[in-house]
Amino acid sequence: MTEREDWTGRQLELEVGPVAHGGHCVARHDGRVVFVRHALPGERVVAEVTEDRHKSFCRADALEIVRADDRRVTPPCPLAVPGGCGGCDWQHAAPSLQRELKAAVVAEQLHRLAGIDTDVVVEPLEPAPLGWRSRVRLAVGRNGKAGLRAHRSHTVVPLQGFGCPIAVPEMLDGVLARKWRPRAEVEVTVDGDAQVHVQVIEQVRGRTRRRQLAGGRAREHAAGRDWQLAAHGFWQAHPAAADTYARVVAEYAQAEPGSHAWDLYAGVGLFASVLAEQVGEQGSVLAVESSRSAVADGERNLSDLPHVRWRAERVERMVQTEAGDPQVVVLDPPRKGAGVEVARAIAERRPARVVYVACDPAALARDVATFIEAGYRLADLRAFDAFPMTHHVECIALLTAS
Question: N or C: which terminal CB in the chain sees fewer CB atoms within 10 Å?
């Protein structure tokens, strides 16, 4: 058997097919799949292969647009080009087209992984499509300049002189103007009161050292409450996201007064506060979060709600050991999803409603498939463009017991 030719560096003229999960489109050449970035469905492009590690597919960047889609636009950032910053995937698409592409990805994942055919609409959030990102983690290159990494690379693309159009205006100015220890990382957060918080993460003598340079305790506002939390702990990056998700979770949960509810992967308790309002003082809410610092923040923020009980524990363990069956379960797992064991354990408790908040459509579809196998159905789904210009999309799904 002859060794397959490595296509890396080769230029191919391609007819671009449908969008795929991950910020690229699918094309085919000589029997192989080519995942093409910086292209749009229906275009004809000349693309250069950037990675060829697999027998059945390779990756490429569109260098020349032979036939363009009508809704192709000039990227607002000069670094959102082949070989540039890897943070944004769809700056070359009009905002309405970006949402259509994300909707197609969500629908395809639900069809392929869960056997569900449903229409998906991705709703915009304001501000959009620029100036929304309130949390940015920068890498520092060998020259001491902060920037973002190139796509699928450790190479740091400096942002000085360009800034980042999707970041909240001016939040990065001070960070980009100075030099840092090479290979450090710098976390920058703008909170709900417009205060900027800066933390540097460095490796010193084999140990990770975190230094807070500005701020430290963030203030946010959502679900009718004021929140105080660690500035670089978990909170939504889009300023409108937390309040929007809280409203949808409240609409989907419909926990009855006096009932018992779970908030899994609870963070600092945003959804626990929503559930607590619904069940009232005669009911109870169990909030489960593995981060002890987040639990401490949650306990402080919800100290006026004694019927919210906190557990600093991994959800995977808690669902196997907790006594009592909830009427409603809300879960907001990390990007990899809850997984089969957690989904099955929740389904075995037979809650009337499961509200699943997901930042990855593939993980959502896999977990929805598990719930369906356990006797649930997808009753409703809303999707939000909480990460404009990127391929990321947030979904909130309502699953009800059949």
Answer: N
